[in-house]
Specification:
Helix content is about 50%, strand content about 15%. The chain has about 220 residues and is of the alpha+beta class. A hairpin with a 2-residue loop joins β3 (about 165) and β4 (about 170). α2 (about 20-30) packs across α3 and α5 packs antiparallel against α8. The N and C termini lie far apart (about 95 Å).
């Protein structure tokens, strides 16, 4: 016999996971009301459903913007889904806003996923790590493992999908995306983004007050 789960408890789980009410109720009943186990069960279910939908073509979606820090940082991000119906859903639009905010909060992020990083960058990072002094006296096999681990860590640092979600650091951006795929029933992909930093790339003018004063004196 299944245990009785209150509507408030089901709603609490839904707020934490974004899953449907019936899925939340079933997960709580299956795990005897244990919230953490129910969250884990829903997460696994969401990841499985997301993997099944990952090959579907996505041509709809939206371009979201986010401006932060007194208009000094701006982000544009394109997120795609399968239908215009899902693109208009508040959950999808909130996801787009959260992803844009995430990008603004992660200064080291340069790529969407590790798979997008070009081999030239990877080879250069490998060469840098392999040449570090703390590895010189280590055996070749150990050195290769350490280098591989450091390079993998570096690649994840600059990949958006590997970042802890700023509103819930227990999940990654990739898991956040998969949760919404399970919630909305469509494949969702972050296609591209651009970050703008005020004054980036510009040579700021340096004022020489002494020279300015001398010029004024010469002209007077």
């Amino acid at each position: 016999m299944s245990i009785r789960i209150s509507a408030e408890y089901v709603k609490e789980l839904r707020n934490k996971t974004g899953a449907g009410m019936m899925d939340c109720k079933k997960a709580l009943q299956a795990n005897e009301g244990n919230m953490e186990l129910a969250i884990e069960a829903l997460r696994k279910k969401g990841l499985a459903l997301a993997d099944k939908k990952s090959s579907r073509i996505v041509t709809e979606g939206m371009i979201e913007s986010y401006i932060h820090a007194g208009s000094r940082i701006g982000v544009l991000v394109e997120i795609n889904c399968e239908t215009d119906f899902v693109a208009r859903r508040s959950e999808f639009q909130r996801l787009a806003k959260d992803v844009a905010m995430q990008i603004a909060a992660c200064p080291s992020v340069q790529y969407i996923s590790v798979d997008d990083i070009d081999n030239i960058f990877i080879d250069n990072e490998t060469r840098i790590e392999a040449g570090k002094e703390d590895l010189i006296d280590k055996p070749q096999s150990i050195r290769e493992k350490i280098v591989a681990g450091r390079v993998e860590k570096r690649l994840k640092e600059i990949s958006l999908m590997n970042q802890p979600f700023i509103k819930n650091t227990n999940i990654s951006v990739e898991e956040l995306l998969k949760q919404h795929i399970a919630l909305l029933g469509e494949n969702i992909k972050i296609r591209r983004f651009e970050k703008f930093l005020l004054g980036e790339g510009l040579k700021k003018k340096q004022y020489n007050f002494v020279a300015d004063i001398q010029n004024v004196m010469e002209q007077s």
